[in-house]
């Protein structure tokens, strides 16, 4: 590509986050920004071995203080349009998990990530939470695409993405090093024009 072509580069539409992170609602759930007072519940739920084993960055055992460090990093990520995380809560206020988008404004797309505490698995909560986040991402943030990765040995996560209408786009072989093993990673995605059509 020569200099003239480069100078004609046109940036995608600017990704605009609301000045204040909103809360989102569905039939059974409320998604809200995390608060420092959530630290102990996050440590308890994310510290479950099965949650850590299936996610990219959550360690096990989960160190004291890490949840507070993570929660305190979230407002800056939001302000810099790099990411948005929501606590998934039940109507009574109990936190059951976390869901969020890592934002890539240069491509106007985002990566969806989530975990749900083990006592709450297989009740449709992750799918319900992810559907609200995807709708918000496409309708309010005007994202062009949302994608997600999961370890090939984690069919529950694959099922969530299928239920959301994501297409499986490929397998990155031995892409992730987890717990002493190189593991295959499945990539799924959905485009703005596809979401909610199935
Ligand atoms: C993946 C995870 C978020 C799913 O949360 P959830 O609230 O249980 O998800 P849902 O109830 O919406 O959907 C789970 C689906 O997986 C299915 N499922 C569960 N275990 C399964 C298995 N071993 N094989 C195949 N399907 C399975 C459930 O039956 C359900 O599908 P259905 O509604 O068609 O019956 C949760 O298991 C979790 O937090 N795991 C650990 C962390 C993690 O994997 N995070 C994602 C990293 S990519």
User: Helical residue percent?
Assistant: 25-40%
Cα radius of gyration in angstroms: 17 Å
Instruction: Pick out the low-confidence regions.
Output: none
| The CATH H-level homologous superfamily | Gcn5-related N-acetyltransferase (GNAT)
Shape: globular
Number of helical runs?
6
Strand order of the largest sheet: 1-2-3-4-5-6-8-7
What does this structure look like?
The protein has 198 residues and is an alpha+beta fold. The chain has a single domain (22-191), classed as Aminopeptidase (3-Layer(aba) Sandwich). The protein is built from 6 helices and 8 strands, in the order H-E-E-H-H-H-E-E-E-H-E-H-E-E. It has helices spanning 3-7, 39-46, 49-54, 66-79, 125-139, 155-163; strands at residues 24-25, 30-32, 83-89, 95-104, 109-116, 145-151, 167-178, 181-191. Strands 1-2-3-4-5-6-8-7 form an 8-stranded mixed sheet, with helices on both faces. Strand 4 and strand 5 (109-116) form a beta hairpin. Helix 2 (39-46) crosses helix 4. The longest helix is centred in the middle third of the chain and has 15 residues, at 125-139. The radius of gyration is 17 Å and the shape is globular. It starts with a helix and ends in a 7-residue tail after the last strand. The relative contact order is 0.14. The model has no long low-confidence stretch (mean pLDDT 94). The structure holds coenzyme A.
């Amino acid at each position: 590509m020569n200099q003239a072509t480069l100078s004609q580069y046109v940036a995608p539409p600017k990704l605009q986050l609301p000045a204040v992170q909103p809360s989102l609602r569905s039939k059974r759930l409320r998604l809200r920004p995390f608060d420092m007072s959530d630290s102990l519940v996050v440590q308890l739920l994310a510290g479950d071995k099965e949650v850590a084993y299936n996610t990219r960055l959550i360690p096990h055992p989960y160190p004291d203080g890490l949840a507070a460090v993570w929660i305190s990093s979230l407002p800056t990520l939001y302000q810099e349009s790099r990411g948005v995380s929501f606590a998934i809560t039940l109507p009574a206020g109990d936190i059951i998990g976390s869901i969020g988008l890592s934002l890539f404004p240069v491509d106007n797309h985002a990566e969806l990530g989530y975990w749900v505490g083990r006592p709450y698995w297989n009740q449709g909560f992750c799918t319900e939470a992810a559907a609200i986040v995807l709708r918000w991402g496409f309708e309010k943030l005007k994202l062009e695409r949302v994608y997600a990765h999961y370890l090939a040995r984690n069919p529950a996560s694959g099922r969530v993405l299928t239920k959301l209408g994501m297409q499986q786009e490929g397998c990155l072989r031995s892409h992730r090093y987890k717990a002493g093993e190189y593991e295959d990673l499945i990539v799924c995605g959905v485009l703005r024009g596809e979401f909610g059509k199935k």
